[in-house]
Amino acid sequence: MKQLSVDVAVIGGGTAGLSAYRAAKEHANRVVMIEGGPYGTTCARVGCMPSKLLIAAAEAVHHARHTSPFGVDVEGDIKVEGKRVMERVKFERDRFVGFVLEGVDSIPADDKIQGYARFVGDHTLQVDDHTQVHAARIVIATGSRPAYPGLWDKLGDRLLINDDVFDWDDLPNSVAVFGPGVIGLELGQAMHRLGVNIHLFGVGGQVGPLTDPDVMAYANKTFAEEFPLMADARVESIKRDGDQVEITYLDDNNETQTIRVDYVVAATGRRPNVDKLGLEKLSIELDDRGVPVADPLTMQTSLEHIFVAGDASNQLPLLHEAADQGRIAGDNAGRAPNLENGLRRSAISVVFSDPQIAMVGMTYRDAQKRLGSCDCLITGEVSFENQGRSRVMLKNKGMLRVYAEQGTGLFIGAEMIGPAAEHMAHLLAWAHQQQMTIPQMLDMPFYHPVIEEGLRTALRDVAAKLDTDNNCVLECVTCQECGIA
Ligand SMILES: Cc1cc2nc3c(=O)[nH]c(=O)nc-3n(C[C@H](O)[C@H](O)[C@H](O)COP(=O)(O)OP(=O)(O)OC[C@H]3O[C@@H](n4cnc5c(N)ncnc54)[C@H](O)[C@@H]3O)c2cc1C
Ligand SMILES: NC(=O)c1ccc[n+]([C@@H]2O[C@H](COP(=O)([O-])OP(=O)(O)OC[C@H]3O[C@@H](n4cnc5c(N)ncnc54)[C@H](O)[C@@H]3O)[C@@H](O)[C@H]2O)c1
């Protein structure tokens, strides 16, 4: 057994791990990064990038099929060649992975250990059966993996996760996607537009990551008009039938329907990879998902020498968060015991569906919890259905709701589905991080004719409800009865 003593060991060589390794190296002499699987990061290999490549192909065919309302007819059949679609997805994906691998190659060989690590002591990691690493500080950056009901394993090779989709050589005929969350919506809609016969099944009516019931209802209706989406599906059975899967469910009219599909894609959420790390051997505080609880500003856990970052932290499983958290965790693991608070940015998330979905700052659910009970939450909204520029471009589907604090007028969050949501979300996230008020946001320039004029309408709507003499927030935050002391 090889024995190594190091200042910092980083478990995981994904986005968070690479970021942590680089940050720790700024302060500590001996830093190692332990990676059990392939290098290249989840984002580039099987996440953000290949999913957006598939979506780009779907957008191309969708545009080609929807020129007629502009008075433009495309002659002849619009053909999707699945093999060429997947060739481009994989070619471009490999290019992105290649850039990551170049970065990994530039790390000295002595700093990289191949194998899966697990704790065998507070400061000791066992890597496969070949190396023991004794580390003064440790960063857990092990990412996450798809989570789905174990019973589905009986579907064998007909059950797929996102990783498998991006390895297809051709597009299949039919797919049932379970989980209309972020991955399910993005992949499901893209496959549908590329000609795959899809059914998307959810539970409890949840669509995307939204928490605002009005925006969620709009999203549900919009996507269900385009392809079969059962957000509250009553699935009675899922069984393998030869090379297909047979699914029986009750439709909205309570009638039994049976479909046969080539594949089931499980997009039912992801779980942090912390369950096989031997954490039970440590006296570390865990949350209800078994994830080490960490201070979001330092990423330090309840054990002062252990830090956590990226999807493994169960905070915000997004790429830019993984990079930020990795930097903070690595920096502090390197400089310990002199920790520094890192920069945590305003929350922003985007679903690359069409229309796009985006959320900024506090969710509606959290805003309601914090301010709703004492009537201090004011909201404004806009529909994009008659919004000038959106209508010009025939992108006039969607709604945006903004949330603010009564009295102060502080902008606290927004949820939306609509055109250019990725860009609007950035404007809003920047305003949120600058702690701007609704009147300050309305003082900013708005060009004409742009989709952002819709945002201005929503801001004016909330501004009309703002009463700056009202000190209800002050009363609310000290209100013992409503539990917000
Ligand atoms: C289909 C899909 C689309 C997505 N799209 C977006 C998007 O558009 N925008 C966005 O912001 N986010 C997106 N995400 C989320 C984003 O990809 C993740 O938040 C991000 O990649 C997480 O990075 P990470 O470093 O935490 O994990 P990873 O990159 O997964 O790295 C973790 C690494 O740890 C290794 N590992 C695990 N256990 C051990 C162990 N015991 N020992 C050693 N090594 C170990 C793994 O092999 C892995 O390489 C998407 C995710 C998916 C699945
Ligand atoms: N554009 C992006 O930024 C992007 C894209 C993809 C993934 N991601 C990240 O990856 C994470 C995981 O994505 P995800 O889509 O797997 O998770 P998710 O939590 O967004 O969605 C899971 C969905 O599956 C549903 N579900 C759970 N069990 C089910 C069952 N048995 N049958 C049917 N539906 C079921 C849930 O109700 C939920 O709607 C996201 O939270 C996000 O952070 C981000």
What does this structure look like?
It comes from Neiella litorisoli. The chain is of the alpha/beta class. The chain has helices at 15-25, 42-46, 48-65, 82-105, 162-165, 182-193, 213-226, 319-335, 364-371, 388-392, 421-433, 438-442, 452-465, 472-477; strands spanning 2-11, 31-35, 112-114, 117-119, 124-127, 131-140, 144-146, 159-160, 174-178, 197-201, 229-230, 234-241, 244-250, 256-261, 263-266, 270-272, 306-308, 348-351, 356-361, 377-383, 399-405, 411-418. α1 packs parallel to α8, α3 (48-65) packs antiparallel against α4 (82-105) and α3 (48-65) crosses α6 (182-193). It is globular and about 70 Å long. The N and C termini lie far apart (55 Å).
The CATH architecture category of the largest domain equals 3-Layer(bba) Sandwich
Q: Which stretches are poorly predicted, pLDDT < 50 over at least 5 residues? A: none
- What is the highest CATH level, the class of the largest domain? Alpha Beta
Q: Can you tell me the CATH superfamily of the largest domain?
A: FAD/NAD(P)-binding domain
Bound molecules: flavin-adenine dinucleotide, nicotinamide-adenine-dinucleotide
Number of domains: 3
Helix content: 25-40%
Q: What separation lies between the terminal Cα atoms?
A: 55 Å
What is the overall pLDDT average? 96
Q: What does the main sheet amount to?
A: 7 strands, mixed
> What percentage of amino acids are in beta strands?
15-25%
Oligomer: single chain
Instruction: Compute the CA-based radius of gyration.
Output: 24 Å
Instruction: Give the count of helical stretches.
Output: 14
| CATH overall fold name of the largest domain | FAD/NAD(P)-binding domain
> Outline, from the CA principal axes?
globular
Q: Structural class, from helix and strand content?
A: alpha/beta
User: What's the total number of strands?
Assistant: 22
